[in-house]
Amino acid sequence: MSELEPIDGVGTPDGFRRLWTPHRLAYIKEAGEGGCPFCRIPSLPDAEGLVVRRGEVSYAVLNLYPYAPGHLMVCPYRHIADYTETTAEEAEEIGLLTKEAMHTLRRVSAVQGFNIGMNQGAVAGAGVAAHLHQHVVPRWGGDSNFLPIVARTKALPMLLEDVRSRLVEHWPA
Ligand SMILES: [Zn+2]
After folding, report:
1. Is 103 in the active site?
2. Are 166 and 108 in contact, with CB atoms under 8 Å apart?
């Protein structure tokens, strides 16, 4: 498939190469039709929603459009947009799942660094600005060494489902 060929259910590609997984069309359509993907994902089976870990008030999920293999997001179940809206319990568990994600990613691959953070508001780059999510992006020396807007072709050597399975297997009990 050509890089710039329109993809049914997704729209016109923007030039980024992405891993295409047709069996997740329902997931993508939901996001494209104005539903909130981060509210929808927890209702899906883990493998379908790419959920890696479910906590009490938040969960960890693989990014469908990863900047790097293993790119995770940690989200509260509640549909809140701003970090200041989190309860103490949510803020604590988002922090805990973020730490566990780092431990797990280090366990399954020779991760050398991380980018961790939240884009607050569309102007700051949040793709789904209405629902808070913390990115956990593993980094390796020699990986795409700047934002993917610069490195337009990203190396994604592992299928998302394989990445999810490995992370689930190695996540701390
Ligand atoms: Zn939501």
Report:
1. no
2. yes
Q: Give residue-wise pLDDT tens across range 100-122.
A: 999 999 999 889 999 999 999 88
Ligand 1 ion: nearby residues, β-carbon < 5 Å: 36, 38-39, 79, 131
C-beta neighbour count of 105 within 10 angstroms: 25
Three-state secondary structure of 75-141:
EECCCCCCHHHCCHHHHHHHHHHHHHHHHHHHHHCCCCEEEEECCCCHHHCCCCCCCCCEEEEEECC
**Centre of ligand 1 from the C-alpha of residue 129, in Å:** 9
- Distance of CA 34 from the midpoint of ligand 1 (Å): 10
pTM comes to 0.74
Backbone angles phi, psi at 48, to 5 degrees: -75, -40
CB neighbour list of residue 109: distance below 8 Å, 6 or more residues apart: 69, 70, 138
Mean pLDDT of 119-130: 86
Query: What is the average pLDDT across 35-54?
Result: 93
Rounded distance, CA 158 to CA 138, Å? 14
- Tell how far the Cα of 142 is from the centroid of ligand 1, in angstroms: 35
Q: Looking at residue 144, what is its pLDDT?
A: 53
